Amino acid sequence: MHRLLVLILLAGLLLPAPAQQPTLPPFHPATVVSTVEPTYPVNSVAFGTVILEVHLSETGEIEQVRVLNDIPPLTRQAEQAIAQWKFRPARLGDRPVPSVVPVAFTFVRPDLWPRFGGAQPKR
Description:
Blueprint: H1 2-14, E1 27-28, E2 31-34, E3 48-56, E4 62-69, H2 72-82, E5 86-88, E6 90-92, E7 95-97, E8 99-107
Antiparallel strand pairs: 1-6, 2-5, 3-4, 3-8, 6-7
């Protein structure tokens, strides 16, 4: 029994030490500095959530917008609004880095607003 314990202990000493993982600097995601709300299309009865994937540069500028959930009468309004948003870039440690930010715009038909706790729009 003692020989087995000694062999197990010696085997542990002969194994290489696990490599130390390098520590990564902290990641700080991009933040929204200013927004513009989309307008609801006048002659539309569509509703739902348009989801956009916004690709940002190291300076926080929008480089590309990809549509992940398309609602044809509403997507254009969402894209026009997001084009006016301003972002502070993501950072890895002290260095700005490109990033991707998901943005969702939920459109509710004006005739449904009171049902969701909103006020009836002025006409």
